[in-house]
Amino acid sequence: MNIRKAIATDMPRVLELIQELAFYEKEPEAVVLTVDDLVRDGFGERPLFEAIVAEVNDEIIGIALYYNRYSTWKGKTIHLEDLIVSKDHRGTGAGKALYNEVMKIAKVQGVRRVEWVVLNWNTPAIEFYEKSGATVLEDWYTVQMNENGINNIIKQ
Predict the structure, then answer these.
(1) Is the pLDDT of residue 7 over 80?
(2) Positive or negative: CA dihedral 76, 77, 81, 86
(3) May I ask which residue range the UniProt record assigns to the signal sequence (predicted)?
(4) Catalytic residue status for 70
């Protein structure tokens, strides 16, 4: 298995994996992102994210997509948006390899925290994260405002 930095030509496969994750998370219609969006937003003048991929025999079997954030308590942090391994390659160590690589990147960047969210029913992921030493915060809620909500606020 090879872990490497993603390049723009990887984005069609990255989008396939994102769609696979959305299906797994029971929201297949939620993905509105396109390959063009990924290329523009990840490889333009001011990239909004970075990604690494796991490959076996030149086939991308997993990705980790992340970006820098800033915490008023910790300073520079990394947000791991998604860590995805294709269904056929789960349990092969690809997820752990991607996860470990993100942590190495965090160490090199000197960040004080890596954070992400996990669905409360995704027991295998929660157990993996806890076993690795991560803390699953059960007393914090993820809050989101969708596009319609944004538009409604602006109209007020």
Answers:
(1) yes
(2) positive
(3) none
(4) no
